[in-house]
Amino acid sequence: TTFVNRKMADILGYSVEEMQGQSMFTFMDDEGKEIAERNVERRRQGITEEHEFKFLRRDGGEVWALVNAKPLFDDQGGYTGASAMVSDITERKHWETALVQSEKNFRALVENINIGILLHSQGKHEFANAQLLRMLGYTLDEFRNTTMKDIVYPDEYEKVSSRFHARMRGEVVPSTYETVLITSGGRPMAVELTSTKTVWEGKPSGMVLLQDITDRQRAIEKMRKLATAQ
């Protein structure tokens, strides 16, 4: 580990100085080490990818993260390592587990979580939690009168629609990806979208989970500009 920012150190409960110079395996359990070894080989092949990964905190706790990993090469094309943007998704993993356990837990959880959740059935928006309504600027009654086309940025609609319906048909497509929505006031909003199938009030439904990633996108763009300047 040659560089760690303060946020990454805080996520795992270390100081920056304690993490730098350590083997990356220090922060993984045995299963994670096996996965990481395979991932390193993919980086050597020049593969950039985003995946979920479980880290170990200093206190022994688990941290689930979304990792955007990119290989690094020297001027001669030799592999020198990898860089990664890491986002803590532990809270999301916890409520995903709760959703599977019971609809009762679902109802209690969705109104108190800081991720937007909507349920979609037969072309209608059946439900939106308080966080999603705040994100998009609707009341629940207003939102129920919208369609997917009303809330998805026009250039993104075909991608979102095709992936959502493919997912509902049981096809293997990416369940999590980035896209752009439109608020009630017409403002575009970058989000991370996860879609899955569920049952709502006894009916097969689609569940969409949305997280505002505008700040993350700005940070990535800033890092890209700094890297280009160097």
Question: What secondary-structure arrangement, pairings included, does this model have?
Answer:
Blueprint: H1 6-12, H2 16-19, H3 30-44, E1 49-56, E2 62-73, E3 79-88, H4 90-101, H5 103-110, E4 116-121, E5 124-128, H6 130-136, H7 140-144, H8 148-151, H9 154-168, E6 176-182, E7 188-200, E8 203-212, H10 214-229
Antiparallel strand pairs: 1-2, 2-3, 4-5, 4-8, 6-7, 7-8
Helix pairs in contact: 4-5
Structure in words:
The chain is α+β, with helices and mostly antiparallel strands and 230 residues long. The protein contains 10 helices and 8 strands. It has helices at residues 6-12, 16-19, 30-44, 90-101, 103-110, 130-136, 140-144, 148-151, 154-168, 214-229, and strands at residues 49-56, 62-73, 79-88, 116-121, 124-128, 176-182, 188-200, 203-212. The strands form 2 sheets. The protein has a 5-stranded antiparallel sheet with strand order 5-4-8-7-6, with helices on both faces. The longest helix is centred in the C-terminal third of the chain and has 16 residues, at 214-229.
Features:
230 residues; alpha+beta; five-stranded antiparallel beta sheet; three-stranded antiparallel beta sheet; 10 helices
Q: Short description, anyone?
A:
This protein is α+β, with helices and mostly antiparallel strands. The protein has helices at residues 6-12, 16-19, 30-44, 90-101, 103-110, 130-136, 140-144, 148-151, 154-168, 214-229; strands at 49-56, 62-73, 79-88, 116-121, 124-128, 176-182, 188-200, 203-212.
